[in-house]
Structures are given as structure tokens and as C-alpha cells.
Design goal:
The complex is a heterodimer of chains A (114) and B (253). With 114 residues, chain A is an all-alpha fold. Chain A has 3 helices and no strands. With 253 residues, chain B is mainly α. The two termini of chain B are 35 Å apart. The relative contact order of chain B is 0.15. The chains are: A mainly alpha (114), B mainly alpha (253).
Amino acid sequence: MNYLPWVTAAWLFAVGIYGVMTSRHYVHLIGCLTVMQSATYIALLSVGYRFGSVAPIFYARSDSTPAVDPVLQAMVLTDIVVGATVTALLLALTLQVHKKRGTVNPERLRPLRP
Amino acid sequence: MTRRMRLVLAALCALMIAPAVVAVIGRMPAFGHHPLPYGDAINRTTVAQRHVTNMVSAVNFDYRAFDTLGEELMLVAAVTGTLVLLRGRRGESLSDRAAQAGERPVCERSEAVTLACRLFFPIIVTFGIYVIMHAQLTPGGGFQGGAIIASGTLLLYLGESYRLWRRLVHSLLFDMMEATGAIVLVLCGLGPMLRGAAFLENVLPLGQTGALICGGIILVENAGVALAVTAGFILLLVEFLEETRATRDGGGS
């Protein structure tokens, strides 16, 4: 239990990177990139977690109640939103590649010609 | 490099990194019992210092507002990049026809779908606005609320018609909204400097803890983020749905 979150994060990162390396389709590759990114969510949230504490919201609750770390939650929050838009940008690039080259298989793409 | 070579290389790298990973995991502090000095300090002092009860918002829009400004500009940059890539070839022309997958026939929209969408669209948008407005009190904020509202607008497309959706979700409006959001955030940084305070310093009156209007600059920044995220996500939806139409119309050129 003690090592579970860290092992999970490392595992997610590893399977993500394996997927990126062996990918035959850019959409699949972007999905793998998202898996790698979710490793950071798990790692950050696990660092900020504390047993027997509440969410860091002190509405109708005393602010001396033990709460989890709000800094890491804020990081994960912005991370998710920016991650979503960056994924959209990558998908748009994939569409462009498909239009220009007719393939979205990274193995088949040669370096850019001038 | 062949696929096989790449995997062998990756396995070698993994073997080299593995001991470091194991060592780091072995020496992590016990899960659930970390020392959290920074978070604890914020939890202890923020309610008194900033009169807000949602610590995550306080961190995002005040203590680490500089980070949020950076992330916000990243978001705007990513959305702009997507728009330039997708809209660049297609132009801004409107179409009354929705996308169509191949030769599949277009089905009539069932009344149940229209009813469900008409019921849920106002509820979802109201909920999104609620989440945005209560950023300083309860869980929520501009990021989450913006994503909720943007996804809600898709119900117009699903329940009414492509034409209506495309007319309402006019991209010029949202282009401007996206820029306004980013500008509000930058002005939040520069504004306090006119009064001799630091960049992004919270100089506005803080209000009363627990009231809807409290937290000073947190409110303004939250509104800026809400504008940028709502507009950004809607623009992404518009562009990707337009892209399916362009494919059908013949390569988008």
C-alpha cells in the first residue's frame, strides 16, 4: 500500500512511453502521451494526500481541520486543462499530416522535405 | 532504425533507469503521512489572509497566480495553434449542413433527443455558471466551469440543428472572448503595479469571508480564466466539427 501510488505512476509512465515508441498511428500515440501525463496526476495527488483529512475547502468548516495539500491539487487542475488543449493541438497537427502525406503512421513518414 | 532495434535500445535504457526508479520509490515518505509544509501554511493562513474558503482557488488565482498566467497563455497559444492549423485552409465560411459520415443517410432527429437536450442544456449551463461563480467558496472555478459550459453547448447541436448551433456559437464572438480572458489576466498583473504594488498582488478589497463576493483579485482572475477556457473549448469544438464537414466537402481546400 505504501508504494502503490508511486509504482502506479511509474507503471503508467512506462506503458505510455512504450506505446509512444511502438505506435503505428498518431491518434494512438497521442492517447499514449495522455497516459504518460496521467502518471503525473497520480504522482502529484499522492504526494499531497494525507490520511484522515478533508478537501482543502473551509466553507462551513473550521480552517484548523486537517486538509490535504491544495498546492498540488491546483497544479493538477491546470495541468488537466492545458493538457486537454495541447491534445487538441496535437490532433490538429495529425489532421494536417494526414492531409499532406496521406498517412498517420509515424513509421512511414520520412523527414520533412523543403 | 527498425522497430526491433528501438525496442532493444528501450529495454537497455529501462534496465539502466530501473535501479534509480526503485531507489526513489523505496525512499519516498510513507503515503498519506507526508510532511506538507507549504500546503499546511496555506490551509492555516488563507482564510484569514484572503477571506476565501476554497484553498485551491486561492493558490491558483493568488499565491501562484503567476503560474496560472503562464498556463493561461499556454492554453491560449495551444487553442490559437489549433485554430490556425484547422481554420487556415478552410476559411471562416459558414455552412448550413452538418458533417456526414461517408454515404450514411441522415436520420431525422428524434423528439426524445430534442426534449432531453432542451431540458439539460439550461441546467448544464446554469451549473457551469454556478461552478464559476463559487470558485472562491466551494469546489470549482473558471477552469472547471468553463469546460462544463463548453461541453454543454454541444447539446444545441445534438438537440436542435447544426445550423442553429453554428449560428449561436459564432466563432468571432468566442475569438474575442478568448482574447479578453487572456487580457483580463494580464491586466490583473499590471493593474496593481499602477498603485505601486507588485505584479499580481492582491490589492482589491477582500470582502467578507463566506460571501459570494470576496477574495479581491481572485474573483477577477477567475472570471478571466472562465472566459478564456469557455471560449477556448468552444472554439476547439467548433473547429473540429467543421473539420469533419470539410473532409466530406473534399479535402477542405
